[in-house]
Amino acid sequence: MSEAQARELICEMGRSMFERRLTFGSSGNISLRTDDGWLMTPTGSSLGRLDPARLSKLDDTGRLVSGDAPTKESFLHLAMYRERAKAGAVVHLHSTHSVAVSCLDGIDHEDVLPPITAYYVMRVGKLPLIPYYAPGDKALGEAVGRAAARHNAMLLANHGPVVAGTSLSAAVDAIEELEETARLYLLLHGRPTRYLTPEQVEDLKRRFPPQ
Ligand SMILES: O=C(CO)COP(=O)(O)O
Ligand SMILES: [Zn+2]
């Protein structure tokens, strides 16, 4: 994919997620690995109105080389790439149901959501909760980096999800699956529910090895 195509893709995916109310205001950010570094959404930008020409271009050391100043969570994205050699894109949203789950008391910090459906297991798998830090806090990047070695998706407490994928469409697929599963989890609250069994989860991991 050329850099021009990558720029268009980020704007198209951002607009699609924004229009489907998967993030709001100027929340959320997207990054994509290129041949010589990364493209990232600028800080303070709405994912619904991104301009391909103003995306932040970072070199392979993470230094801004052109465009507007990058997301204040660029270090968090870079921590994901550092730990995940195959990651081609990272998406962070403030998607409502995932945020709601990230605020629940008493959830399992090692794995926030149960295996409700096969697609959730295939796209997300285990979902750790990262303790709360203010947006842009460098300690958030360190905490994300520690979890990223073992997980392609994580939930920031009282904040929202962060997901890496081999491509931007893979990362978007996974974060959408996470959001819908959070919604199902809340919908099912209080009802006797049959989750997938550990055997069914293991079978899915064999058939569809995690990235
Ligand atoms: O979601 C966000 C912070 O958590 C958005 O921040 P940026 O506008 O700096 O990307
Ligand atoms: Zn955020």
TrEMBL record:
Segment forming the signal sequence: none
InterPro entries: Aldolase_class_II_sugar_metab, Aldolase_II/adducin_N, Aldolase_II/adducin_N_sf, OtnC
Entries under SUPFAM superfamilies matching the protein: AraD/HMP-PK domain-like
GO cellular component, one term: cytosol
UniProt-listed Pfam families: Aldolase_II
Cross-referenced PANTHER family: 3-OXO-TETRONATE 4-PHOSPHATE DECARBOXYLASE-RELATED, FUCULOSE PHOSPHATE ALDOLASE
Reported function: Catalyzes the decarboxylation of 3-oxo-tetronate 4-phosphate to dihydroxyacetone phosphate (DHAP) and CO(2).
Family assignment from sequence similarity: Belongs to the aldolase class II family. AraD/FucA subfamily.
Name assigned to this protein: 3-oxo-tetronate 4-phosphate decarboxylase
Phylogenetic lineage: Bacteria, Pseudomonadati, Pseudomonadota, Alphaproteobacteria, Hyphomicrobiales
